[in-house]
Amino acid sequence: MPKKIQIAIKEDVDFLDKLLVKTSGSLKKDRIKTLILIKKGKYVFYSSIAKKLGRTEKTVRGWAQEYLKSGISEMLSVRSGGNNTKKISEKMANAIEQKLNDPKTTITSYVELLKILEKELNESVNYGALYAHCKRKHQSKLKVARKSHYKKDENAEAFFKKTLKTNLKSVELFLIKITLNL
User: Among residues 5, 42, 147, 168, which one has the fewest Cβ atoms lying within 10 Å of its Cβ?
Assistant: First the structure.
């Protein structure tokens, strides 16, 4: 059986309605709507409020508990986000930029870039962090041509290229003649 709501809201409905109009952000608005619905007494269970707002019952119950502990001001403060610290130092970021923008570089993979940076700077960094940094900041694509087949005949390739050029020239001349006759 769902949990019944047993909370007394101190603020009156008019104050909550005005606060709802002034507030921006869907998360804060849903928190205020929760208080309004509880205050009006239309809903007896957390699950019914959660269904009305499109949230989970646990979320709505958590908001109500936050209101009971700290009041409306703490309930409306959104504390999302985590400890997102930079994994790549400024020194390493500058070295990456220098390596990727150097036209004479022979780097063919991110693993190779990672090893070079670790050797030069004596700093270790996660491969995923390096890859994400290179893609996000420098839009890099370290691509290497595929290896040739071991049975590939170089003479046949040269002959194909020569005949292709002559065939293209003859087609070009043919098209010119046709356009002149029109």
Answer: 147
C-alpha span between 123 and 119 (Å, rounded): 8
Q: What's the rounded Cα separation, in Å, for the pair 17 and 106?
A: 64
The Cα–Cα gap between 134 and 161 comes to 37
Structure tokens at 171: 């087609």
Per DSSP, the three-state class of 80 is: coil
Do 125 and 117 form a contact (C-beta atoms < 8 A)?
yes
Closest to 12 measured CA to CA, from 35, 46, 34, 30: 35
For residue range 115-147, what is the model confidence (pLDDT) as tens digits?
Answer: 999 999 998 889 999 999 989 888 888 766 667
Name the one residue in this structure whose structure tokens are 């020194």. Answer: 91
User: How many other C-beta atoms are found inside a 10 Å radius of the C-beta of residue 125?
Assistant: 17
Tokens 């940076």 appear where?
Answer: 117
d(CA 19, CA 10): 14
